[in-house]
Amino acid sequence: MKLIKLGLASLVVSSALFAGNYNIDNSHTNVGFTVKHMMITNVSGNFNEFTGNFEYDEKTNTLKSLNGEIAVSSINTANEKRDAHLKADDIFDAEKFPKITFKSTKIENDAIYGDFTMKGVTKNIKLDLDNGGIMGDKAGFALSGKIKRSDFGITWNKVLETGGVAVSDEVKLVIDVQGKLAK
């Protein structure tokens, strides 16, 4: 019986030795989004300030967990007037809700599920996972998916004379992550 317990303990310890904790490298990571504007073009943007970490199993070359936090006030769509409006209380309300967060709850195959919190509302979302792999003390991957901004209480819009709306409800998320092994 002691031999079985010792064997199980060594298995747990040895598998943990291959899983590394990584801190997100802001200079090699992009947290971006795209939304349809006036029903004819896409407007892209990103967030310039974010933090996070993830666990990556070097032995199996798989992502095990991910946690991230985004500063809403760092939104950048290459248009200062639009960025100011996005931060205002009728859209993100950055003063009252300064952070967007993501905490993984399950990772399987090419998908990651997690609790996504924006404007005080938390929903479990699914993102497609493109595993980039590991090289030395760095690991990386890409995430993509869609959310409905109305699910998070972001409902501002304008009806156009042509019958469409100024901004679509669907937002495409495009996130490229590179992390460095924490020491």
From TrEMBL:
Keyword terms:
Signal
* Entries under SMART domains matching the protein: YceI (SM00867)
Coiled coil regions, renumbered to chain: none
InterPro entries recorded: Lipid/polyisoprenoid-bd_YceI, TTHA0802/YceI-like_sf
Q: Which residues form the signal peptide?
A: 1-19
Starting at the broadest rank, the lineage of the source organism is: Bacteria, Pseudomonadati, Campylobacterota, Epsilonproteobacteria, Campylobacterales
Residues in Lipid/polyisoprenoid-binding YceI-like domain copies = 21-180
Extract the PANTHER family matched here: PROTEIN YCEI
Q: What's this protein's name?
A: YceI-like domain-containing periplasmic protein
The record, for SUPFAM superfamilies, names: YceI-like
